[in-house]
Write a structure and sequence with these properties.
heterodimer, A: alpha/beta, five-stranded mixed β-sheet, globular, B: alpha/beta, Rossmann fold, 2 domains, 8 helices, binds iron/sulfur cluster
């Protein structure tokens, strides 16, 4: 049985038969005519599955399965949005999904990284930050920083710092933050977030974990 | 907005006082149909307002322009029972040549009607429509019109521009905020507007660019509810937020 989290940039496909997780580009998934899943989440998955679960519900179930605490805050930072669930004493505290104001910040980091040929694993967190109102405004600031003699890696680290501030504020400035999504693998992002709070990366498969819980229901 | 034929109609928006609605009927024709201009019915965009206008007010202007010569008059709620944008819309309509009667719903005309639909069970869109129909037809529907129920959730706010958001709620959702005030016959009763049941998981909805966003946001924080605002149509993320809140709380 295939479970899929079809994000805006990446699609995570879990095969329950052999317990494997495959990650492909969502653009590849939408072009594939016979991609069909038993249970899926993500807007582009709606017509490609037997059972659809919305992203926030998948995030909540996945985080509940992975976090051993009755009170916690988890954010999923994706290519074009940020999702938030906070649980207080086992009950839902806050739910949010920032699509309009956090738009395309994650995807912009990937784009700029590719544009400047940056190896994220070698990028250091920066103490400076730029105002990342949205992906386009932030990108403009990075381009300007570089055009006035700054190093691209430093410009991008400042962009990441701006995004981290947004995410931390959006999450209600918790002291401990569980992180879901591709940024768990970005040491600069995680290192920058650690300036603000304790960070526990849960990895890229939190929503898939949430779909497993649906399967067990 | 239901318009059954090609005859003249009287438009209204908000919750005009019943007295002024009655006067309008006397003046312009007892038999003229009353149509609610607040509601989106697919009138073409008049382009007369900027894009950051509350969508309900844009509906009022677009509908009025669309109906144009068929509108005998517009009864405009310009008081605390609606909002400043309503007052400004009345001004714009008058400048555009429409016959406008202004209404303020005074406290001494407040009623105390039974909250049959607000505390009843049934599809939320239907109950909100039924409440809004009481503006022109206040006949008591009787307790048996809807079965009352213990609430599992709450909806606070004005009737949204896009009713699809209401379809996500379970039938056991009680209605609060301005819509509840309309059913009670007390628009502009701020105390009643701010009332919600303690501990009841409630979604606080406001149209984008409406002053009620401040109230909704504050009340959601105070009551551990979900604050949602929406401009034209609801999108996937708004529906998902509401759905997740309802399922998880
Ligand atoms: S939604 Fe708010 S701003 Fe719009 S008409 Fe109603 S009260 Fe006025």
């Amino acid at each position: 049985m295939l479970l899929a989290d079809c994000g805006s940039t990446w699609t995570k496909i879990y095969d329950t038969e052999n317990d494997t997780l495959r990650i492909i580009q969502t653009s590849e998934m939408v072009e594939c005519n016979n991609c069909h899943f038993a249970i899926a989440t993500g807007h582009s998955a709606r017509s490609r599955c037997n059972l659809f679960r919305n992203e926030l519900l998948a995030l909540a179930s996945g985080a509940r399965a992975m976090v051993d605490s009755s009170s916690f805050t988890v954010v999923d930072v994706g290519g074009r949005d940020i999702k938030l669930i906070s649980i207080e004493n086992g009950r839902i505290g806050k739910i949010d999904w920032n699509l309009a104001c956090g738009s395309t910040t994650g995807a912009t980091i990937e784009l700029l990284g590719r544009y400047y040929g940056i190896d994220f694993s070698e990028m250091e967190p920066s103490d400076e930050w730029i105002n990342v109102t949205c992906g386009v405004f932030g990108m403009e600031k990075v381009l300007e920083f570089v055009s006035t003699g700054g190093l691209p890696s430093e410009g991008l680290a400042r962009f990441i710092h701006g995004l981290v501030r947004n995410v931390h504020n959006f999450a209600g400035r918790p002291r401990r933050l569980y992180l879901s999504g591709g940024f768990c693998e970005n040491s600069c992002f995680v290192g920058t977030m650690e300036k603000y709070c304790e960070v526990i990366p849960l990895g890229r498969a939190v929503l898939v974990e949430g779909l497993k819980a649906v399967q067990d229901e | 907005m239901k318009i059954s034929n090609n005859e003249k109609v009287i438009g209204y928006f908000g919750f005009p006082s019943r007295r002024i609605l009655g006067e309008a009927r006397k003046r312009y024709g007892e038999r003229l149909e009353l149509v609610d201009l607040d509601v989106a019915v697919g009138a073409p965009d008049s382009g007369l307002l900027n894009t950051t206008t509350c969508r309900i007010i844009a509906n009022v202007i677009d509908n009025a322009v669309y109906l144009s010569g068929r509108l005998a008059a517009v009864v405009a709620d310009v008081g605390e029972s609606k909002c400043d944008r309503g007052r400004h819309a009345a001004f714009l309509l008058r400048e555009m040549g429409f016959e406008v009667m202004e209404s303020r719903f005074p406290r001494d005309e407040f009623e105390n009607r039974d909250l049959i639909y607000s505390t009843g069970r049934g599809p939320l869109p239907d109950r909100i429509n039924a409440i809004m129909d009481t503006v022109v037809d206040p006949t008591d529907p009787g307790r048996e019109a809807v079965t009352s129920c213990e609430p599992t959730h709450g909806f606070w706010g004005v009737p949204p521009n896009d009713f699809r958001i209401l379809e996500v709620f379970p039938e056991t959702t009680h209605i609060f905020g301005w819509t509840r005030c309309v059913e009670a016959g007390r628009p502009g009763d701020l105390e009643m507007e701010c009332y919600v049941e303690e501990g009841l998981p409630t979604v606080f909805f406001a149209q984008s660019f409406c002053a009620k966003q401040d109230l909704a946001h504050h009340l959601a924080g105070r009551n551990n509810g979900l604050y949602v605002d929406c401009h034209r149509s609801v999108n996937h993320s708004i529906l998902s937020k509401v759905e997740a809140f309802i399922k998880l709380s």
